[in-house]
Amino acid sequence: MLKDEYTNNTNNTFPIPKIIHTSFKTYESIPKEYNEVFKSWKTTNPDWEVKFYSYNDNDIMIKKNFPWLYDTYNNFYFDEQRLDMAKACYLYLYGGLYVDVNYLPLANIDPLFYNSNDELYFAYNNNAQNSIVTSFMGSKPKSSFWLTYLKNIIGDKGFILNTKYGIINSTTGSQKFTDLLESYNGTVGKLPYNDINSCTECNENCNQSFYFHVINNGNINGRFFSDIDVVLFKFIYCFLKKNWFLITFTIFIAIIVFFIYLWLTYKTVLMIPTFLFFIYKKITKNANDIVGNVKKEIGDNVSNLSHFIKKSPSKQSKKKEKKE
């Protein structure tokens, strides 16, 4: 659906509760650059209720409403995993939208949900293998998908030798959501990613999208995006992605120059394999010739012997001649 279609749509049947859930370590620790976010929600979406939860609030909520999950929640390695679990719990209990605290709203978001009555709402990031964006998710209350997700992550600690990003992504994050949705039978509304988040994996200083400006995308909630292993991997990946033709051409030229250098410097050495192969072929040919000659000699001898046997008279013939 195009942006002007959102604006012009007058059928405002609303499928989910108008509640915004967002979470950070504590309210006091929210970076100053995010201060405008809460003010902007009130001005652009005045009929939406914004609920902020500290990490301590998340702990209390899970202990009270999902005691069977509490051990799993406490045993996670990273805060990001606990936050992912809390998102699912809030959306199951109350429905509405979970939105990361660094999403600065620029327009009323109601048109995103017009003419739909889906159970879940997700944006799919085309820049990251069409995976689920966990920073902006919507749901009706009590959707069975969230219980499936919560049960599935119990005991899933991920591959221990993986990076922090890999562990989070596969155990509670985007990859886990994406995998589970493939087998989910309920209705899922697909939200327009580029109108919500214009960030890409190689560009975190994002331009404004139609609905939001994502502030400081790489460091929200002290997330794994700032870890040294991920920073290094992303730098290498993005550099290769932007300069793949130049890198390929340079490697091709380097290989040619390397072999020319070897040929000019170690010409005699490089000819040794060729010389050995020539000797091998010569020996093989001579051996084949010798074997052929031996076979021919044996064949001739056998032929002569057969001819001699045919010409020689038998003993019975000789006796018969004597009697006569």
TrEMBL record:
Matches recorded under Pfam families: Gly_transf_sug
InterPro entries tied to this protein: Glycosyltransferase_domain, GlycoTrfase_DXD_sugar-bd_CS, Nucleotide-diphossugar_trans
MF GO annotations: mannosyltransferase activity
Transmembrane segments: 244-264
GO cellular component: membrane
Keywords: Membrane, Transferase, Transmembrane, Transmembrane helix
Biological process according to GO: mannosyl-inositol phosphorylceramide biosynthetic process
Name of the featured protein: Glycosyltransferase
Organism of provenance: viral metagenome
Taxonomic path: unclassified sequences, metagenomes, organismal metagenomes
